[in-house]
Amino acid sequence: MKKGYLVSALLIPGLLLAACGENNGNENAGGNENPGNDENVEAGGELVVYSARNETFVQDLLDKFEDETGIEVLALHSAEPLQIQEEAGNVQADVFISNDLGGLEYLNQEGLLVGGDYDNVDSIAEEYRAENNEWIALSSRARGFIYNKDMIDEADVPQSMEDLFDPSFADVENGYAITRGGNGGMIGNVSALRYEWGDDRTQEWIEAIQENASGIMQGHGDIRRAVGAGEHSFGLVNNYYFHQQLEEPDNNNVGFIYPDQEDGQMGAITNAAGLGNVADGPNSDNAEYFINWLLEEENQLAFVGESLEVPINPDLEPPFEDAVPIAELTLQDMPLAELGNYFQDTRSLIEDAGLDLELR
Amino acid sequence: MTNRRDGHHQEKTNTEDGKVEDRRSSTLLRVMNRWWMDIWKGNPPGPVLLIIGVITAILMSVPILYVIWRAMFAGLDSWQRLLGDRIPGLIWDTLSLMVAVTVAAIIIGVSLAWIVVRTDLPGRKWWQWLMALPLVIPPYVGAVTYIIVFGPSGWARDLWESSFLMALSDYPINIYSFWGVFMTLTLFTYPYVFLIAGASLRKMNKSFEEVARSQGMSTSQIFFKVNLPLLRPAIGAGAILISLYVLSDFGAIAMLRYVTFTAAIYYQRAGFDIPAASVLSLVLIVITVIILWIESYTRRKNKYYQTTNSYKAPDILPLGRWKPVAVFYVGLVFTVAVILPISVLIYWTAIGAGAGAIDNRFFGFAWNSIRVSGLAAIISMLLATPIIYLKSRHPSVISSTIDKLSYGGYALPGVIVALGLVFIFNNHIPMLYNTFYMIAIAFVVRFLPQAMQAGDASLSLVSPRMDEAARSLGYPAWKVMFKVVLPTIMPGVLAGGALVFVSSIKELPATLMLRPPGFDTLAVRVYYEASEAIYHQAAPGALLIVLVSIIPLHYLLKKY
């Protein structure tokens, strides 16, 4: 009985709205301003994209796809991998774009992604793809420290992740900045440390940065702007945020440290951005179409786009001059797909420390 | 409903002897009927009206009940982990902010009300509505403007560092702190107290003060011993609005990087830690209920009567040598809470317009805002009218329960309503999940009471005699409703719709949580662009929201 009430309670307004909804749909079509534009016969309909990346990196790419194919892209930015899991019984997304291969591989292990055979997929090395191309990485990044050259000498910036255990970094001018623990980049960073150090030491590290950081922000864009403007001496970001800050008209006197490059150190922590094909998505044909399109070299570059990351496809020139090819760095030896095994526990570790809810 | 009970009864007795059953059932029917009539005091509503009322009440309360239910099954470890570390800290951060903002807003609101109503402040008539203006600036928009002005890279720091002050100390303001949040929320919520206290100061009877003065009390003694006690109900009403607002705010708090329960619930749900989000929601629900209970308790204990038959308007007190101080104070609050934010918005809107920020995309977002808010307003008007009619013409336990349940979503933060709706739609009504109807329904649950209050006020002016007269001419109930009642209360219903529309267009947390892919509203864009520090993109939308929000101010000023 109760359920019946519930359903009718929710359906009645729904039905009331159905009329309005139809009306809206018509007006949308009417507002198209281009009456002849309706025959997207070959490729048409919609593509639902969930994206965990910064919207400014993704939106241009999606617009490009929409313009070239006529497929309408419905984007949900700042989505989380776990939303795909939550909606598994009622799949909404066709494609999930992520900064963190850990999240993608986690979804893959849960059976929420579907593989495929795409035209140009061989342009991406196998270690940057899931076994059956359930996810494919397209651009890579390394973690490191952006610093403000007016405030701190290069030598005084941390040279390794381990340095952050040292509370004296709390005393640099205006302190340093990190992101909230819920950030995908931070989750990948912590997973890499767990692979290297084990859980106890990693937990101590989280507690140390939580204690010592003077700024804890939602995203890395906040950090690069803050460091550039002198609000903090340095911040833990992905390398391309440094390149972005260099392109700013002002507040651009910044430098970057790739940590852990000495012999015997673990090497720079890397991660990649890429996308996964969501199993049973409502427009699975369009998802396949999108991935094929995206693997065209021109569009691989568009994916890297404004983010100033480095394309994973070695044939592609990085779209900006100052790129440090990842090949020249000493990298941590963890295979990136391994991040997927750490994903859930890393989140609990961060939560236990309380860093997921800390902002300052 | 009587039928159903009757059927139930028959089922129970159908094994017994037919005759006895017949007699019994008719007795029982009579008892039931009497009981039913008793509940309604001899005036039961028609079934359609009652069904609409019951359905609405369920719609309003189910999201919250669902959250509570999920919280209870969140699992012991979720509870333990949260109770151990999280919740005490969150309670402290949330309640200290709530108390500080409420106290400060009361002090500012009451003092301003007293100055502009009771003293010869120059331009006092103007100030009486100018000082209510911060109400049109949603606190998250205000927070953006304060970050632009006072933030670590703000205009104020530039000024400071280029002046002699730099030699004295570094720039001292940290907007991303308790004090930043405190200042922002105080300045954009004090008008609640200001409006209500101002209204009661205007109605205050002079005779009390004359008596006090004849006893040799000074003006300040009169204020504390006579005015203030009489203001207590007004202050209490304002305080409850402000406390509930602080508990529910998400946007301003998120932008200023402060974490309260509401923000924590939002982040937990964004990270899909659903058990944790529901546990935190349950705690927040309990806090809210406690506050509502304290309010009703104190209101019961403090009753102040004003005699109406010997009403004399109070004197306007001369400020004398305090005049410059009063002008400075009023001017300062006005500058910080109105001129500053509006100027910042206009400045960045101009830059944004130059940079092409007001493009097709912008109009798309505006259109999304309008249609989802418009839909919410229409549904609210449709649902509010039967409920207020039921409550006013058929008073009973049932109608007042329906009325109370309809207020559930209003008292609770949008994140909780949104959380409940996500659960329900994702698990039980997948068809509507991820459609913009979900947002509209959340708005209805949140803001239906605004429509009810506005309609209620108009309906109270329509005498039930009018209905009776129409009925006696042979009109059936529904015809009375449409021909007599509705036309009369239409202005009130529409005003209620306008209020819902305006509240909806600036609503942030539920919109963020429920928006389907490809559906952004102005509020969401303002939040996103501002948190990326792309102010020229954020400002036009924010300014539009502020302009739209002037509608309820007009309504509020008429009300108080």
From TrEMBL, chain A:
<dbReference type="GO" id="GO:0046872">
    <property type="term" value="F:metal ion binding"/>
</dbReference>
<dbReference type="Pfam" id="PF13343">
    <property type="entry name" value="SBP_bac_6"/>
</dbReference>
<feature type="signal peptide">
    <location>
        <begin position="1"/>
        <end position="18"/>
    </location>
</feature>
<dbReference type="GO" id="GO:0055085">
    <property type="term" value="P:transmembrane transport"/>
</dbReference>
<comment type="similarity">
    <text>Belongs to the bacterial solute-binding protein 1 family.</text>
</comment>
<keyword id="KW-0813">Transport</keyword>
<keyword id="KW-0479">Metal-binding</keyword>
<feature type="binding site">
    <location>
        <position position="240"/>
    </location>
    <ligand>
        <name>Fe cation</name>
    </ligand>
</feature>
<keyword id="KW-0408">Iron</keyword>
<keyword id="KW-0406">Ion transport</keyword>
<keyword id="KW-0410">Iron transport</keyword>
<dbReference type="GO" id="GO:0006826">
    <property type="term" value="P:iron ion transport"/>
</dbReference>
<keyword id="KW-0732">Signal</keyword>
<protein>
    <submittedName>
        <fullName>Ferric iron ABC transporter, iron-binding protein</fullName>
    </submittedName>
</protein>
<dbReference type="GO" id="GO:0030288">
    <property type="term" value="C:outer membrane-bounded periplasmic space"/>
</dbReference>
<dbReference type="InterPro" id="IPR006061">
    <property type="entry name" value="SBP_1_CS"/>
</dbReference>
<feature type="binding site">
    <location>
        <position position="241"/>
    </location>
    <ligand>
        <name>Fe cation</name>
    </ligand>
</feature>
<dbReference type="InterPro" id="IPR026045">
    <property type="entry name" value="Ferric-bd"/>
</dbReference>
From TrEMBL, chain B:
<feature type="transmembrane region" description="Helical">
    <location>
        <begin position="276"/>
        <end position="294"/>
    </location>
</feature>
<dbReference type="GO" id="GO:0005886">
    <property type="term" value="C:plasma membrane"/>
</dbReference>
<feature type="transmembrane region" description="Helical">
    <location>
        <begin position="48"/>
        <end position="69"/>
    </location>
</feature>
<feature type="transmembrane region" description="Helical">
    <location>
        <begin position="129"/>
        <end position="155"/>
    </location>
</feature>
<feature type="transmembrane region" description="Helical">
    <location>
        <begin position="234"/>
        <end position="256"/>
    </location>
</feature>
<feature type="transmembrane region" description="Helical">
    <location>
        <begin position="431"/>
        <end position="448"/>
    </location>
</feature>
<keyword id="KW-1003">Cell membrane</keyword>
<feature type="transmembrane region" description="Helical">
    <location>
        <begin position="175"/>
        <end position="197"/>
    </location>
</feature>
<feature type="transmembrane region" description="Helical">
    <location>
        <begin position="405"/>
        <end position="425"/>
    </location>
</feature>
<feature type="transmembrane region" description="Helical">
    <location>
        <begin position="534"/>
        <end position="557"/>
    </location>
</feature>
<dbReference type="InterPro" id="IPR035906">
    <property type="entry name" value="MetI-like_sf"/>
</dbReference>
<protein>
    <submittedName>
        <fullName>Ferric iron ABC transporter, permease protein</fullName>
    </submittedName>
</protein>
<keyword id="KW-1133">Transmembrane helix</keyword>
<feature type="region of interest" description="Disordered">
    <location>
        <begin position="1"/>
        <end position="21"/>
    </location>
</feature>
<keyword id="KW-0812">Transmembrane</keyword>
<keyword id="KW-0472">Membrane</keyword>
<feature type="transmembrane region" description="Helical">
    <location>
        <begin position="326"/>
        <end position="350"/>
    </location>
</feature>
<dbReference type="Pfam" id="PF00528">
    <property type="entry name" value="BPD_transp_1"/>
</dbReference>
<dbReference type="InterPro" id="IPR000515">
    <property type="entry name" value="MetI-like"/>
</dbReference>
<dbReference type="GO" id="GO:0055085">
    <property type="term" value="P:transmembrane transport"/>
</dbReference>
<keyword id="KW-0997">Cell inner membrane</keyword>
<feature type="domain" description="ABC transmembrane type-1">
    <location>
        <begin position="366"/>
        <end position="556"/>
    </location>
</feature>
